[in-house]
């Protein structure tokens, strides 16, 4: 067993929870953070079943409480001496047609999905610089490479993360810090239910997009979603790779979307999407 230390954000469900288990099974000590420790039961059950409970330290962290982040990172270093892996995973999705979303709702999206990851990373870099090693793994999305109807602000937050991360990697490569983007397609987690927050105007019948929104909601419900354990295994493998790539696209749907975006003329590509979704019209 190694004594490597991993910190994960958003470990109460989905990829974060499953990654905590994977990394603990791989021998890491895992600081599994979540914004509400009252929601730790699923994690406790999973790590108990996997026999790795002693390797998990669940701690409270809301990634939008920016002032608390440096103290959180300091407390991890005080207790464990180092941080080998940071998995910036916490995220959610604001949903609704772009026309209907308030600026405030779009800002909220960025606070978690972009600034939360930035703030965690900025706090971890000095630690990793001293160590001259460390992996920072950003959980991005195919939405960071491809726009999606009714997810414009989610897609914008992940595109911002992609650009920031690509730049950061160039800056910290020489310090021994490995920065990686994991870009999943559609996987079965709570982000499709609890983690999807409709913009307020988008839910109103007065919205000119109301009927299309309902059709989109039904369509999204039918889209196949893969096993999130695949993503957790990938993150754990990347965390142990001494020389990881910048990008890891995962999921059949994500690979098809990106390939057709790159290969087809955009007009053909958008026609294909419209035919697939079939939500336009009265
Ligand atoms: N599932 C997919 O198809 C998919 C595809 C591409 C990318 N992703 C990305 O994967 C990441 C994880 O999502 P998931 O699919 O595993 O969904 P999930 O099951 O809903 O998990 C999201 C996690 O983020 C946490 N979270 C949300 N806001 C937070 C905040 N301000 N501070 C700390 N934690 C916060 C949630 O905590 P609570 O339990 O307290 O709400 C939850 O633990 C996200 O970044 C998401 O954008 C997901």
Outline of this structure?
The chain is of the alpha/beta class and 282 residues long.
Could you describe the 3D structure shown?
With 282 residues, this protein is of the alpha/beta class. It has a single domain (5-93, 105-198, 226-251), classed as NAD(P)-binding Rossmann-like Domain (Rossmann fold), CATH 3.40.50.720. The chain has helices at residues 14-25, 41-50, 69-80, 103-131, 152-172, 210-222, 229-239, 252-263, 266-277; strands spanning 5-8, 29-34, 56-60, 85-88, 93-95, 134-139, 177-184, 196-198, 247-250. The protein has a 7-stranded parallel beta sheet with strand order 3-2-1-4-6-7-9, sandwiched between helices. Strands 5-8 form a two-stranded parallel sheet. The longest helix has 29 residues, at 103-131. The chain is globular and about 60 Å long. The mean pLDDT is 96.
Q: How are the SSEs ordered, and which strands pair?
A:
Elements: E1 5-8, H1 14-25, E2 29-34, H2 41-50, E3 56-60, H3 69-80, E4 85-88, E5 93-95, H4 103-131, E6 134-139, H5 152-172, E7 177-184, E8 196-198, H6 210-222, H7 229-239, E9 247-250, H8 252-263, H9 266-277
Parallel strand pairs: 1-2, 1-4, 2-3, 4-6, 5-8, 6-7, 7-9
Helix pairs in contact: 1-2, 1-7, 3-4, 4-5
NADP nicotinamide-adenine-dinucleotide phosphate binds next to helix 1 and helix 4.
